[in-house]
Amino acid sequence: MRRVGGRSDGAFGRTRGRALARTAFRALRAWYRPRLPLAPHRCPRCRFPAPGCLCAAVPRVRSRVEVVFLRHVSERGRLTNTGHWASLALEGSSVLEHGVVGEPLDVSRLDAAGAWLLFPSPHPPPRDAPPPLRLIVPDGTWAQARRIVQRVPEIRTLPRLAVEVAVPDALRLRRPLVLGGMSTLEAVAAALRALGEVEAADALDALHRDGVALATRLGGGPGRGSPPGSRTGAPPARRSARG
C-alpha cells in the first residue's frame, strides 16, 4: 500500500473522507436550522418563552444613525442573539441575512453614501471623515462576522468605527472568544455612545442587562469577561476600529 506523508493512502483517504463528511454535515445543518419554526411556547417577536418574555423590557430607541444588521443565517431564531434584541429596540433599523441558500444578499444598501462598518481595522478612518449616517453591523460569532466581512466586498472598503468595551467583566450569554469581545448589542450601544447618543446607548445597555438576566433565570447561564469561550456576536473591542 502506498504511503502519503507518513500515512498509507487508505488512511489518508479515510481522513479526507471524514473531513468532507463533517463539512457537508455543517453545510446541511446551516441550511436546515433556519427553516425550523420557533417552538409554540416561544414569543415570535423576541424569541423568549411566553408569557413573561423580553418584549416588555424592549425600549423604543431613536437614533440619528440607521443601523443595518448583517446577520449570519445560523443566528436566526437563537434566543441568545443580542443583535435581534437591538433590532427590536432601534427604530428604523433593519436586518439582512447572509448565507441563506438560494437567496442572494441584497447589497444595495450596504455601500451607500454615509455608510460605515462596525468592525476592527488597523487603519482608522480619515480625521475629516463625516460621521456615519448608516452603520453596518456584522452579527454572528466572531468567526462568522469575520467571514461576512471577507465575503461581502461591498462592506470591506467602508470606513470603520472604533469602540471600546464598556464593562470588560459584564455578564454575557456567551463567553467571548477573544480579548475585548462583546455582544452585538453592547457593540452597537458603544458605537452610539461614541457618536454622542448617550441616551440611546444607555437604553440599549439596560436592554442587554434585562435580556441576560431573563435568559439566566430561564437556565442559560451567562459567562463573564474575556477568553476562552464563544463570542456573542461582536468582534474584539478595538484595534483602531470597531469592536
Characteristics of this structure?
disordered C terminus, globular, alpha/beta
Q: Helix count?
A: 6
Describe the global form.
globular
From the helix content, strand content and strand pairing, which structural class follows?
alpha/beta
Number of domains: 2
- Low-pLDDT parts are 225-233, 235-243
Task: Give the strand line-up of the largest sheet.
Answer: 4-3-6-5
Describe the structure.
Residues 225-233 and 235-243 have low confidence and may be disordered. The protein contains six helices and eight strands, in the order E-E-H-E-H-E-E-E-H-H-E-H-H-E. It is α/β, with parallel strands linked by helices and 243 residues long. The relative contact order is 0.16. It has two domains: 3-35, no CATH class; 55-224, no CATH class. The strands form three sheets. A four-stranded parallel beta sheet has the order 4-3-6-5. Strands 1-2 form a two-stranded antiparallel ribbon. Helix 2 (82-89) crosses helix 5 and helix 2 crosses helix 6. The protein has helices spanning 9-32, 82-89, 142-151, 153-156, 184-194, 198-217; strands at 3-4, 7-8, 66-72, 94-98, 115-117, 134-139, 171-172, 223-224. The radius of gyration is 20 Å and the shape is globular. It starts with a strand and ends in a 19-residue tail after the last strand.
Please provide a brief summary of the model.
Helices cover 32% and strands 12% of the residues. The protein has 243 residues and is of the alpha/beta class.
